[in-house]
Write a structure and sequence with these properties.
Strand content of chain B: 15-25%
Largest sheet of chain B: 6 strands, mixed
CATH superfamily of the largest domain in chain A: MetI-like
Structural class of chain B: alpha/beta
Helix content of chain A: over 70%
Distance between the termini of chain A: 49 Å
CATH superfamily of the largest domain in chain B: P-loop containing nucleotide triphosphate hydrolases
Shape of chain B: globular
Radius of gyration of chain B: 22 Å
Number of domains of chain B: 2
Radius of gyration of chain A: 26 Å
Structural class of chain A: mainly alpha
Distance between the termini of chain B: 32 Å
Oligomer: heterodimer
CATH topology of the largest domain in chain B: Rossmann fold
Largest sheet of chain A: 3 strands, antiparallel
CATH topology of the largest domain in chain A: MetI-like fold
Strand content of chain A: under 5%
Largest interface: A-B, 21 and 28 residues
CATH class of the largest domain in chain B: Alpha Beta
CATH architecture of the largest domain in chain B: 3-Layer(aba) Sandwich
Number of domains of chain A: 2
Helix content of chain B: 25-40%
Number of strands of chain A: 5
Strand order of the largest sheet of chain A: 4-3-5
Shape of chain A: flat
Strand order of the largest sheet of chain B: 6-7-8-3-9-10
Order of helices and strands of chain A: EEHEEHHHEHHHHHHHHHHHH
Number of helices of chain A: 16
């Protein structure tokens, strides 16, 4: 490929993106067709997956994005190009599903193939790159997340994707999907809340009493190294015993399997980041600031609430971010011990060799973790905005 | 008035402040000097009970500080430290409003007071009220630090190396500002420093501390002419003594009748400045001008030098 021509320079990342788009369009299948949901599929190239007119339109749009990515350097233009790519390719996937499925056939399944994912990756890279170049502030990034979420919601609600295999899996179990979604959030957010309730005071105590610090952090560190499945297993025994001997515990729904051990395990994993970041955050509050606060007669409580915690907030929020992203992912494993959550679909799908069902559990998990990361990063930056020295 | 009586602080076997007794008159400035580790800061911090004394007591206007809850005591005493400790997450106005807010002043009264203090410190409220500390220069931060300490009109202001972080030019200006504001408000000030120049410039009385003990507590001139111990003499600097003494008297004190030629010198200038002017311009005498600009006599080298000796 020519590296430079008169009048303009080739953008390096843009070049890579253009190559990715080219590969996706001409060397990889766009969709996979399967006669039913568990047999292996047959690949379909873009030009075979859509009616000829539509196919060439999508092809032209994707090629235009590739050219713009490689040659144009203005960030807003590149962002618009990526938007064009998504707007052309994402609905086209839904059309491909309708086009490839024989009339009246309810067993056939059409799912996105490697080429489609490669296109999404290329456009996603272009978006990430242009957002970085635009140096969006926290509110800008939240808005970008909102636009992306609205775009996906529109595709889902309008029925544009209703022919896709993963949506068919969803349609077959929409009740349990939302129940497991609620359960997943309950596991991740419940364990986070409990960890905050316990971890913040513990962190504060470790900050005030340095003798406690290293011991506490070491214990939590050890907990952190226990693999999740092993920790679930370890917790089954004491919780099962508790349920069997204390009627109140059983009445509260505490059992050796189910949500209780999952919540406890996620809570234990959450403690280290919360406690450690609280200690670090409080520790970096300048000594002169604390001294001045004491000298002006702020009570210990006022010092904590008005000075120390606000100044430690960005670091504590960084701990919350770690915990939330980690727990949204780890909560998937809870399904193995009957804890519910999106993991239910993943493990059912693996059991049935139904990859679409696996994706029905995996994609929302990834999307949730990604959204949580963006939201908390923005919150950290906002908290930082008024407290840097 | 502050009365410090046999104030002592021990940590285990080491004594940090050893039986210090001193009295600071209403509306005066007492400067505590000494080498580092002499116990100056500890003494200061026992006045607002940031450190609890081992024994002895502090009376403020006759009231034992131990009889007041410590937070309440500190609301009534301004406190300025080196580095100022401004709250980085709060604006200048919010920083200054700290103690008034703790005291539950209403919004209007707080806003008025903040504006008054910013004006007093020549910081335009429209420009500075909503800035954050990191947007200020060192000198501006220092002024906000003092304004914050004065916000609730404390009768007593404690300052621990308040100018230590400033460069020499800004420091001199900040010292002059402090003097002017102190004269205007009549605040009693106890100030800790290790800068002798600063001590002589600001102090109505100077307390010299060494190894936990108060060696001498006297007006600046007495410290120079009658040092109580060899350490005091060393600290005030034998070579600097005459010049320090000169800086304590004004041209007005040395004005004599008679004519002189040259640019008149102001009567309010100190004799050290006057001598320096005379040496630099190579004259024996200069005319002296009063505050109204009228010549009121002259000041001569011989006349000045008499003030640089103890036996005048």
């Amino acid at each position: 490929m020519a590296s430079s021509r008169k009048g303009f320079r080739l953008d390096r990342l843009g070049g890579v993106i253009a190559v990715l788009i080219g590969l996706a369009l001409f060397a990889a299948p766009f969709a996979t067709y399967r006669a039913n949901r568990i047999v292996s599929g047959e690949p379909r190239m873009l030009l075979d997956a859509l009616p000829p007119g539509l196919a060439s339109g999508v092809l032209a749009a994707a090629l235009a994005v590739a050219v713009m990515a490689a040659t144009l350097r203005a960030a807003p233009v590149r962002l618009a190009a990526a938007g064009l790519g998504f707007a052309a390719v994402a609905p086209a996937m839904g059309m491909a599903a309708l086009f490839l499925t024989p009339e009246g056939n309810t067993f056939a399944r059409v799912s996105p193939a490697f080429g489609f994912w490669l296109l999404m990756l290329a456009f996603g890279l272009l978006v990430a790159d242009s957002l970085t170049r635009l140096r969006l502030g926290p509110w800008g990034r939240l808005a970008a997340l909102g636009v992306a979420a609205a775009f996906v919601a529109l595709l889902l609600l309008s029925g544009a994707w209703s022919g896709l295999s993963i949506i068919k899996e969803y349609a077959a179990r929409s009740d349990s999907f939302w129940r497991e979604a609620g359960q997943h959030l309950l596991l991740a957010l419940g364990s986070l809340s409990a960890a905050l309730l316990v971890g913040l005071p513990t962190g504060l105590l470790c900050h005030r009493l340095p003798r406690l610090r290293s011991g506490t952090l070491q214990v939590l560190n050890v907990v952190q190294t226990v693999p999740s499945i092993a920790l679930f297993g370890i917790l089954m025994v004491p919780l099962g015993y508790l349920a069997a001997t204390v009627p109140l515990a059983a009445a509260l729904g505490i059992r050796g399997i189910g949500a209780a051990p999952a919540l406890v395990a996620l809570f234990l994993y959450s403690l280290l980041p919360i406690v450690a970041n609280t200690v670090v955050g409080l520790g970096q509050v300048p000594a002169a600031v604390v001294e001045a606060a004491r000298g002006m007669g702020l009570s210990p409580r006022q010092r904590l609430l008005q000075v120390e915690l606000p100044l430690a907030l960005p670091v504590i929020l960084a701990g919350v971010r770690i915990v939330l992203v980690q727990n949204l992912g780890l909560a998937t494993v809870a399904a193995l011990i009957g804890g519910g959550g999106f993991g239910t679909f993943v493990f059912q799908g693996i059991g049935q060799t139904a990859i679409d069902l696996v994706l029905l559990g995996a994609i929302p998990t990834v999307a949730l973790a990604f959204a949580a990361a963006v939201v908390l990063d923005a919150a950290i930056e906002l908290a930082n905005g008024t407290s840097h020295d | 008035m502050i009365e410090i009586e046999r104030l002592t602080k021990r940590y285990g076997n080491s004594t940090v402040v050893d039986g210090v007794t001193m009295r600071v008159e209403e509306g005066s400035i007492a400067v505590v000097v000494g080498t580092s580790g002499a116990g100056k800061s500890t003494l200061l911090r026992m006045i607002n009970r940031l450190i609890e004394p081992t024994s002895g007591r502090v009376l403020i206007d006759g009231q034992d500080t131990m009889s007041v809850p410590e937070d309440e005591l500190r609301h009534r005493i301004g406190y300025v430290i080196q580095g100022y400790g401004l709250f980085p997450h709060r604006t200048v106005a919010e920083n200054i409003a700290t103690v008034p807010r703790l005291l539950g002043w209403n919004r209007k009264r707080i806003a008025d007071r903040v504006e008054e203090l910013l004006d007093l410190y020549q910081l335009d409220p429209a420009e500075f009220a909503n800035k954050y500390p990191h947007e200020l220069s060192g000198g501006q931060q220092q002024r906000v630090g003092v304004a914050r300490a004065l916000a609730a009109r404390p009768a007593l202001l404690l300052m621990d190396e308040p100018f230590g972080a400033l460069d020499p030019v800004i420091r001199a200006k900040a010292q002059d500002d402090l003097l002017a504001i102190q004269r205007r408000l009549g605040t009693t000030i106890v100030l800790v420093t290790h800068d002798m120049e600063e001590a002589f410039h600001l102090g109505d009385r100077i307390a010299v501390m060494d190894q936990a003990r108060l060696l001498q507590y006297a007006p600046p001139a007495e410290l120079l002419t009658r040092p109580a111990e060899a350490f005091v003499e060393r600290l005030v600097g034998s070579a600097e003594r005459p010049f320090r003494l000169l800086s304590l008297s004004t041209v007005r004190d040395a004005t004599e009748p008679g004519p002189a030629s040259g640019e008149p010198i102001e009567a309010s200038a100190n004799l050290r400045e006057a001598l320096s002017r005379l040496v630099w311009c190579g004259r024996d005498a200069l005319p002296v001008a009063g505050a109204d600009g009228a010549v009121m006599g002259r000041v001569s080298i011989d006349g000045i030098l008499r003030f640089g000796r103890p036996s005048r």
